[in-house]
Design goal:
By secondary structure, the protein is an alpha+beta fold. It folds into two domains: about 210 residues, tricorn interacting facor f3 domain (Immunoglobulin-like, Sandwich), CATH 2.60.40; about 130 residues, Neutral Protease, domain 2 (Orthogonal Bundle), CATH 1.10.390. Helices cover about 30% and strands about 30% of the residues. It contains ten helices and 23 strands. The strands form six sheets. Strands 1, 2, 4, 5, 8, 11, 13, 14 and 15 form a nine-stranded mixed β-sheet that branches. Helix 8 packs across helix 9 and helix 8 crosses helix 10. The chain is globular, with a radius of gyration of 23 Å. The N terminus is likely disordered. It binds tryptophan (TRP) and zinc ion. Tryptophan binds next to strand 20 and helix 4.
Length: about 475
């Protein structure tokens, strides 16, 4: 791998010298080349190689064939993007697989690989501002990411009857090449072919009836709203389905592995009811459908896959359904620009659990806050500042619990009316966009007319228990 990469670099350097030629004056080849190479990372300080620089993806079209028995994935990814700078070469993120060919705007491109970086050199360099299409043909047995920091494995995980696909934070690269960082969102089309009798569940809506030819069924799904790569899914297996609409009219699809048949109706009904309720609290549901999927893979976790939260091997209760559905606003419609701001996803989704309990009358947000606050001064959540999620321990309990406490402290400081206006305005002003903590603090200050620096500093950034 390394030697091909070096050869490619040497070739590119040579080509750039030829391109500069004697007539092009004083510009030094190395400089001109580096100005035209897309960075191998998108610029997240804590995940320097995640995502890529130099271009912006607008659409992924993923054509996948998957055979559970052999765990083999055959893929053709067609990626539409815009060059943000001139590009002689740029990177995609991809882990594993044999890549058999890449074209850019229909012309064969050269490429090389090193770790999770796939470097593509188009036959003709791309001009700044150019729209371009990359097509990558690949196949192999997906290799999920194992036990990274405090997570189990994640990515495209083969199961006995299919695959469990949950990719946060950077596991999309285990099943398709792309710009694998939430700062670059795009729309998606999926065309997934599996053995007859097996169901493939991706994001958004089915664009037609599944078609069966020669014992293989093709499912076509479209997610028409911008989505981060980690929220994309193509969960495959035997599933029982229930489809319809929520009481407020949002499309609703619940799917469960046959082992969880008894959970289907409750999942469908509770997901519908909670989606509608969040619509009244956070503003209109941002996507075209809601629902949930329970697979029999014992991940022990759930992920808020866009339009189809995925529950790994357990019957989800109200708390976790409320959590994953709140993420459709906070995390999915609004995505973080960098991972250290993860409390904007997890703190909000955890606070939503408290709001749901309050709505149901089973508890109050304040009582739940007090329970957390009563933890001893030596409890690890007081050491870990949730406003700066750490790359080796991204999903620390503090990001969830102390993140939620931060919102409760804000609510206490500005009052219910302004607090809920902040939540709705936040979701509305940044719908389908990317956000930072600074922007949230600025909004809370704008709507409340209060100086809130010390509140947010104590709750989000200090390694000790705030005083109340
Ligand atoms: N975002 C998930 C939640 O809190 C947790 C999570 C993080 C996760 N990484 C994951 C779940 C990877 C599945 C796979 O709801
Ligand atoms: Zn969450």
């Amino acid at each position: 791998m390394r030697s091909t990469n070096r050869q490619a670099a040497a070739l590119a350097a040579l080509l750039s010298m030829i391109a500069c030629g004697p007539s092009s004056g004083a510009a030094r080849p190395a400089e001109r080349l580096s100005a035209q190479v897309g960075a191998p990372g998108i610029g997240d300080p804590d995940f320097p190689l995640d995502g890529n620089g130099g271009y912006d993806v607008s659409h992924y079209s993923l054509k996948l064939g998957y055979t559970p028995s052999g765990k083999r994935l055959d893929g053709v990814a067609t990626i539409k993007a815009t060059a943000k700078q001139a590009l002689k070469r740029f990177n995609l993120d991809l882990k594993g697989f044999e890549v058999s060919g890449i074209s850019v705007d229909g012309a064969a491109a050269t490429f090389s690989r090193e770790e999770h970086e796939l470097t593509v050199a188009p036959a003709t360099p791309l001009r700044q501002g150019a729209a371009f299409t990359v097509k990558v043909t690949y196949s192999g047995v997906p290799e999920p990411i194992q036990n990274s920091s405090n997570l189990g494995s994640y990515g495209f995980i083969p199961t006995p009857d299919g695959a469990f696909v949950a990719c946060e934070p950077n596991g999309a690269k285990t099943w398709f090449p792309g710009n694998d960082h939430p700062a670059d969102k795009a729309t998606f089309d999926f065309e997934i072919t599996v053995p007859e009798g097996v169901t493939a569940l991706a994001n958004g809506e089915l664009t037609g009836k599944p078609e069966t030819v020669d014992g293989r069924t093709t499912f076509r799904w479209r997610e028409a709203h911008p989505m981060t790569t980690y929220l994309a899914t193509a969960t495959v297996g035997k599933f029982q389905l229930r489809q319809g609409r929520t009481p407020d009219g949002i499309r609703n699809l619940a799917a469960v592995d046959p082992k969880f048949n008894d959970s289907l109706d409750r999942l469908y009904e509770v997901s519908g009811e909670i989606t509608d309720y969040w619509g009244t609290v956070f503003g209109p549901y941002p996507f075209s459908s809601t629902g949930g999927v329970v697979d029999d893979f014992s991940a022990g976790y759930a992920l808020e896959n866009q339009t189809k939260p995925l529950y790994g091997g357990f019957d989800p209760d109200d708390d976790i359904i409320a959590h994953e559905l709140a993420h459709q606003w906070f995390g999915n419609s609004l995505s973080i620009k960098r991972w250290r701001d993860l409390w904007l996803n997890e703190g909000f989704a955890t606070y939503a659990e408290w709001l749901w309990a309050e709505h149901e009358g089973t508890n109050t947000a304040d009582a739940l806050f007090q329970t957390f606050y009563a933890r001893q001064a030596t409890d690890p959540i007081w050491k870990y500042p949730p406003g700066r999620a750490q790359p080796g321990d991204l999903f620390n309990e503090s990001v969830y619990g102390r993140g939620a406490m931060t919102l409760h402290a804000l609510r206490e400081a500005i009052g219910d009316e302004t607090f809920f206006k902040v939540l709705k305005t936040w979701a509305g002003e940044h719908q389908y966009g990317t956000v930072t903590t600074e922007e949230f603090v600025a909004l809370a200050e704008r709507l409340s007319g209060k100086q809130l620096d010390s509140l947010f500093d104590a709750w989000l950034f200090q390694p000790r228990r705030p005083t109340i």
